[in-house]
Known about the structure:
Layout: E1 14-16, E2 22-24, E3 26-32, E4 38-43, E5 50-54
Antiparallel strand pairs: 1-2, 3-4, 4-5
Amino acid sequence: MADQQTPTPDAEPKGWCVCGQKVTIADAEAVTLSNGKPGWQGYCPECGSPLFAIRRKAPGG
């Protein structure tokens, strides 16, 4: 039986930018909020605005 791996459909962190687009966060760094929740920090590759997104659990995880 073959080993099946379920690829994550959205492995790269994405966030909504002020330019109105959902973009992949450029130079994304994993950060931890003061309340202990994980997040991503980086910038928009389209306009250069700083971006922040809260990391979510993987589906089924």
